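Extended Data, panel c. Modelled sequence:
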Amino acid sequence: MKRVLSIFLGLLLGLNFIIPAFSSSHREAPGIAKMPKLDGTDFYVFNSYESGKSDFVTIIANYQPLQDGYGGPNFFTLDPNAVYEIHIDNNGDAVEDLTFQFKFKNTVKNIALGIGGQSVKVPFFNVGAIGPNATDNSSTNVVESYTVNLIKGQRRKGAPAAITNADSGAAEFTKPSDNVGTKSIASYEAYAKKHIYNVNLPGSTSSQGKVFVGQRKEGFAVDLGGVFDLVNLNPLGATDATPNTIGDKNVTTIALEIPKAFLLGTSGSSIIGAWTTSSLPVALANKKQIFTINAPKRTVKAGLVQVSRLSAPLVNEVIIGLADKDVFNNSEPKDDAQFASYVTNPTLPAILEILFSSAGYKAPTVFPRTDLVSAFLTGVDGLNKTDATAEIMRLNTSIAAVTASQQKTLGVIDGDNAGFPNGRRPGDDVVDIELRVASGVLLPVADAPAGQLPLTDGVSISADDFDQTFPYLKSPNPGKS
């Protein structure tokens, strides 16, 4: 997930050995910090482990960070001017072969009441109970809907084809209202499940998938209080020693369940690459002055400019240099050779050594860091490697999913090849994994002594913290329970 490494000058004054953790501000680049509705926060791709779904892949893209359940009256609609996309590369060249494109519409009903003989519009999101049916929006003042198109080939050149409701044939879907509170929505989970749709996939006469877009409980876990209290953590202590301080936050989820065969097409490979982006019309991006550092050359296609990009967690926070953060968000994976030095010669381990050398932390001494190249840019040999050098989430669809009870939170480095960085599941502890990988857990001990430390941010996460059925992320925290 996109997290910022918190480093405090006070640590340079002789504090005891503690490791920085990753905060959840999501404001990883100057441009996207201005636009939370366009800010991708987490991206998951994994072989579905729901019972009976072994032939499917689940893809989850989360947007709009740190939502408070009580954040009304406008709550957290997505941007109707934007395009939100999930891209799939199925032949290993880091260019999209399939794009699932989401566009949103907000219908403001302007519900009014008769007050003293005049019709006066109400200031609230709803004026009565919402649901329980997906089609019952009579008391809701703002109704959000969306379309999903499939584009084959390059996303700005291919012809979009509508993904339709398999039950009704409709090409427009209703997004559930955010979790206003239990008085407004008595059983939110039952209400939300009415908005999980079976869908027909263009070009397929037999395959169907599922789509869900709606508010979910924040799936990341971190101790923000400890981070901002001079990183007041115990990195060699228990992995469940610290409460999750963002457990009361929500996000907006875009989720797909797609047959593996449909994603793979005729490529002959079992490995897919995936990433998510959001884009704005050029005029709006210019007006909001999205790009403020290093004046990156913008990738403008079909009148849209890309403003956010995400696949593996933490890349733009703790790997890409400040001068190139907006450039990264605006770039395409096929051009990632321009960022290679940030991976082969990373600054993060060196910063950790500067801060904590007196306590015994020593950064890896071998360069280039080919172990990080495998983890972030090419995939791991014998697991999910492809030909291209590109920062995308790679998933080997031939590796069987592991049931929730059998998943290992440290994924591949703990022998669970169905986990991160072979895709990413909700229960993969990516903070602990990436602390250890950056410190050299994949290198020989002589080259990276700190890589063998069981580094942790102290906040536990596992598959047990999530649902075991699509869309896996939990029901959002209510505005009032």
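The chain has ten helices and 19 strands. This feature is highlighted in the accompanying rendering.
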